[in-house]
Each structure stands twice: as C-alpha cells, then as structure tokens.
Design brief:
Shape: globular
Radius of gyration: 29 Å
Number of helices: 3
Number of strands: 47
Strand content: 25-35%
C-alpha cells in the first residue's frame, strides 16, 4: 500500500511539474472599470505563447473562477468583432466558466499571442453579481497583465495559474484527510518533539488543503517581511472577504507532521495577529480533531503579535501514542495572521516575545522509529528487489523544494510596458487654441490653465515689428491659432482597507486616474496620506500589490503623513487611464495599535470599491494638483478635475 501511494505521488508530481514548465500564460484586464457589483462580468483575455512552436487553440481551455450568487441560468458572449468569435465556446460549471475553442479556431504563432478576447457573461434575469467574492477578478488590472488566478489547460493538463483550492494544486480540490494517531508514515519533513516541547514556524507546513463551501476560494498564503514575525515571514488567511466560519473546520488548513517521543497532554500556544476585530481567530487540532471550539476559537483579542492558548478554555492535545501525528491549523476568520505554533507538556510555561527557536526537523529516512518500519516488507507481496524504505527519501526532499516555486508561476515576463503604448509625441493633443505668443508658457505641466487666457491681450500690438521674433518657432502666420498641450488632470481614488477604527495596520488602497489628454510619468507624481502616529515607536511601510510592481513604490513616513513616490521603472500613466490599485500599509515595529479616528485621510465609508477622495493629496513636481491638506478648509479650485470616465461615488 505504501509503495502504491509513493508511485501515485511521484506521478502526480511529474504531471504537475510538466504542466508548470509550459511557456503559455494568460494575461487579463478588467473591462468593468473597477465596478464590483454589476449585472454582467467582462473579463478580457490574451493567451501568450513563449515557445518557438505554434499552439493550436483547440488544445487549450481557460477557467475563470467566480461566484454565481443565485439560481438563474446564465449566458455567454464574445464581445466586439473578435475574428472567429463563433469558434469560442463558454461552458458554465459550479464555481467557474470554462472557455474553449473549436477545431477551426486556428493557432497562436511562435512567440506570439492570441488576439484580445473580450468576454461577457450574465444571468438571464440580469440580477447582479458580487465580484468582490470572485477568485479570478482583479479590479486593479486595467491594462493587460499576467493573472495566475485564471487557469490555462493544454489537452487537459494545467499549464498556467493556480486553481482556487490553494497555491499548490497537488491536492486538486479534495481536502487531505488527517492521518490516524500513531501512523508512522510521514510524507514530508517532520518536526521532532524534544523534552515535551515542539516549536514550529507557521510557514514550514507539511501540506495545505483547501476550504469548502463558503470558504471555497480561501487559502493560506505566505507573506514575507512582516514586522515582528520570528522568521520575517508568516501565513495569512487570504483573501480577506469577511468570512467567519464559527465552530467548523471546512476552512482551508495547514498540517504539520510531528514525531512525538513523549506522550501525555500538550498545551497548544499560537503566536498570531488580527489586523481587525473581525480578522483574528483560527482553530487548531490534532489528527483531524479540532480542540479549539467554543467562544471565538483561538483569538488574538488584542493588537500586534500575541501568544494565544485559549478558546473557550485552554487548548490541549492528548497525545496517546509515540510516533507521528498531524497538528492542524484551520481558518476560522479570513484575514488572520499566524506566525508560530508551540506545544508543551508544561502547563505553567508561557512563551515570551518571539518564543524559542524552531524545533529540529527530520526526513522520512532519519526518524528514530525507523526500526518499526522493518516488518513492513510483508506488505509488499510482489517481492520487489528494492524495499520501500530506500525509495521513501525521494518524496520529501525532492518534492518540497520543487513544488514551492510552482506556487507562484513566473508570471511577469511580458510586463505592462509591452502592452501599454509608449509615450509618443501625443503629449501635444489638440488643446484649447490660443494665439502663437502663448507658446512661451509651454511648460505644459503648469497646472493652472486659467493663466493662459490672460496672455491674449498681448496679441493686440501685433503691428509692432518686434512681435515677429516671438513667432519664429511657428511655421504659420501669427494670426493662426496654435494648439497647446492640455493641462495635466489627475485625481485620486481611495478604498479603506481596514475599516476598524482601532487597528495595528493602516491600509489605504489608492488608485490614480488620469482624466486628461496628457501622458504623465509616475516619477513626477507623489501622494500624501495624512494620519496620526500616536507614539514614538518605529514604523514600517509595506506594499502588498501594485500593477507596475510593488518594488517601484517608495514610502516616506513623515511626522504626520505618509508620502508615496514612484521610481522611474513605474512607467507612464497614459491619458484617460488609471494605475489600478496600489495596496499599501503602515504598521509599528512593536505591533501596537493606531487610532484611525484621529486620521485626516481615514474614512470607513469607502469600503465598497474605489471612489474619488480629496483627503489624499496628489502633487506633480511638488505642485498640488488634487485634494486638500489638513490645514486647508476647502480644496483649491484648480484641484477639481474634469468629469471622469471612470465610475465611483463622489
């Protein structure tokens, strides 16, 4: 039986490895202008072929994952004049739309891509979808970018993306059952209990398994460089959609194999952090049996990293036999962070700060209990010359490091700049016609366009011959109107990432919208988010996501505001476009809370998507263009942009 399991496991690993080495990717943009509550869904897709061979479209299928919310039948359409639109098929399944191609759909040329495929699907009763719950939806991707939450299959084999069960698609969509107590057959590296204690970093799990039902699209995600975490890394129940599962274990889980040498009662401690009052609880258990039911599960009940050992009462595990047991963590509320797990037989032990160092780990061939495995050749009736124990070392060490890279497909070989048109001489579109002499103030970025008409009277003394030199740069007569570049017109949209007034992380989501006709280099733009520091503790700035790369966003923490700047690599914000969501955060190094009610730029009413917001200021080359500062009673008149083509509440 063990040998059969090993063969299946290795074959599954080879299939997945083969799939993820394929050079086919999906690029996506949102065609719904960031609206999360609409009566149709409009993903736009491209398939990128990075190989030197043509790929037949009929061999490919795409899955777009979403939540239907209702029982109405649905309809699928291909928008615009996509060539061969009648050769694109759409089939609805529970939890996703599968897009396919007929045999006459053609192929993708070597190092080429498919044409833009603009899709639309809707319910036949035209009731609304809530796209905030949708796994594949990315409101901030308004220009084509890699999207690994949309999966691509070639001849039925996954070649791009992550299925929503979790980051590692080994388990398909079936939860992995817990091993019965005392079963000495660990599939991966295990932790060794020593002197009645075992300490585990949360990110060093043996395996993860997906959620079900309401938690179908939730999974545990590793976040690096978190302030105060013991290994500069922790696990987060992602995405944060406000789910609370109560006393249930159908949330996504993480399993940790432990080799217990000492039996008895173990007291369970978890080092965790709840970013909000509704994002701070989880469940723990042993061998698939939860031990933290009651009250609110294991809850941080405070701010910053906290060691927690209670639910309704102290959480304990009864280890009745030596050998391998599975310690399991389940999501109770999404958004919860977990850093470390500690089990001890000492009822009076209380871990301090980051706790002890992590316990040693072992490979399957190393544990002291290996003598117990020697009678198992009786399980192998075929009399194979190579006994099972010699094969066993290959799964753990070989698969562990190989699967992890496939969690995050190398998805940014064709970044936005290849799709977003490079700035051309269109920096001088047809603006308001003004007489030739007004070319003098051509520092087009001068924001106050109202100054231009004041130059008009200077045209009158045109009879004076001295006017001629001012028109040298213009190949047309002085009486001809010369168009000037339109003034820069940018605005800021905001979404409140953490609505709780008391929180240990301030999380503004920001979108910059260019409503004008002038391309703007982002390196010339800076933003200011005003807040109160409330103490002298050191702070850190972090970027979770930015369409042009979080590494191209810089944050400077001033006494009463955060200034966000952009590196040259952030690129150009084209006319009539937007950056998409820039998701950032501010937190203290000691994890102490902020009181956001004192913050000028905080507004918990803005939680349903991006909307225009004037309490975050925007500067271009140090000149205020949008918003008003805390000491300003009203926004400057020049900060009010033209009517935007993008939706959102005002």
């Amino acid at each position: 039986m063990k040998k059969c399991f090993l063969i299946v496991f290795v074959l599954l690993f080879l299939i997945i490895s083969f799939g993820f080495t394929s050079d086919l990717t999906i690029q996506y943009r949102d065609d719904g202008h960031g609206k999360v509550n609409d009566n149709y869904i409009t993903p736009c897709l491209k398939i990128i072929n990075k190989t030197s061979k043509s790929v037949a479209l009929s061999e490919l299928t795409i899955r777009y994952y979403y939540s239907k919310e209702g029982t109405s039948p649905e309809s699928f359409h291909v928008k615009d004049r996509y060539p061969g639109r009648n050769r694109v098929t759409g089939t609805f399944y529970e939890g996703y739309l599968e897009i396919g191609f007929t045999s006459g759909a053609g192929s993708i040329t070597p190092f080429g891509h498919s044409r833009e495929i603009r899709l639309m699907f809707h319910k036949d009763d035209w009731s609304h979808y809530n796209e905030a719950n949708d796994y594949s939806y990315k409101f901030h991707l308004t220009r084509y970018s890699d999207n690994d939450t949309i999966t691509l299959y070639k001849n039925g084999i996954l070649v791009w993306g992550r299925e929503p069960c979790e980051n590692i698609p080994v388990s398909s969509m079936t939860p992995i059952p817990a091993k019965p107590p005392g079963e000495d057959e660990p599939e991966t590296i295990s932790f060794i209990e020593t002197d009645g204690m075992v300490v585990i970093e949360a990110e060093h799990y043996s395996k993860r398994f997906p959620g079900k039902y309401r938690a179908y699209f939730s999974f545990w995600r590793e976040i690096a460089s978190l302030a105060g975490s013991s290994n500069r890394s922790a696990m987060v129940a992602f995405p944060n959609r406000g789910i609370n599962l109560g006393d249930a274990t159908y949330g996504p889980g993480m399993e940790y194999n432990v080799n217990f040498r000492k039996t008895g009662t173990y007291y369970c401690w978890v080092r965790m952090w709840g970013p909000g009052l509704n994002d701070n609880s989880l469940h723990s258990g042993l061998d698939g049996i939860p031990a933290s039911y009651g009250a609110k599960g294991m809850s941080s009940r405070g701010f910053g990293w906290k060691w927690v050992n209670k639910a309704d009462s102290v959480v304990t595990f009864g280890v009745e036999s030596q050998g391998y047991h599975a310690v399991t963590i389940w999501m109770r509320e999404d958004g919860t962070w977990i850093d470390k797990i500690l089990l001890t037989t000492d009822p009076f032990y209380v871990p301090q700060k980051a706790g002890p160092e992590e316990s040693p780990r072992e490979f399957p061939s190393i544990p002291e209990s290996t003598p117990e495995l020697t009678p198992e050749p009786t399980i192998e009736p075929t009399g194979e010359p190579t006994p099972g124990p010699t094969i066993e070392p290959t799964p753990g060490p070989t698969i562990e490091p190989t699967i992890e890279p496939t969690m995050r497909p190398t998805g940014e070989p064709t970044p936005g700049p290849t799709i977003e048109p490079t700035p051309e001489p269109t920096m001088m579109p047809t603006g308001e016609p003004t007489p030739g002499p007004t070319i003098v103030p051509t520092p087009g970025p001068t924001i106050i366009s109202t100054d231009i008409p004041t130059v008009v009277p200077t045209i009158e003394p045109s009879a004076d011959p001295t006017v001629e030199p001012t028109n040298v740069s213009t190949p047309v007569p002085a009486t001809t109107d010369v168009p000037l570049p339109d003034p820069i017109s940018l605005k800021v949209q905001y979404q409140c990432g953490v609505s709780s007034g008391l929180t240990n992380m301030i999380r503004p989501y920001i979108n910059i919208v260019n409503t004008g006709e002038t391309d703007v280099p982002l390196r010339e733009v800076s933003l200011r988010y005003y807040y109160t520091k409330d103490g002298a503790t050191d702070e850190e700035f972090m970027v979770d996501d930015a369409p042009f790369g979080g590494e191209n966003v810089a944050g400077s923490l001033m006494p009463d505001f955060l200034q966000v700047d952009f590196k040259p690599e952030a690129g150009i914000l084209s006319r009539q476009s937007e950056t998409g969501g820039i998701i950032c955060g501010i937190l203290r190094s000691d994890g102490s809370p902020y009181d956001q009610w004192n913050d000028f730029s905080y507004d918990p009413a803005y939680v349903d998507g991006f909307a225009d917001f004037t309490k975050i200021t925007l500067f271009v080359n140090d000149s205020l263009l949008w918003g008003y500062e805390p000491d300003g009673p009203t926004p400057p008149p020049t900060a009010v942009p033209n009517e935007s083509v993008f939706t959102g509440k005002n």
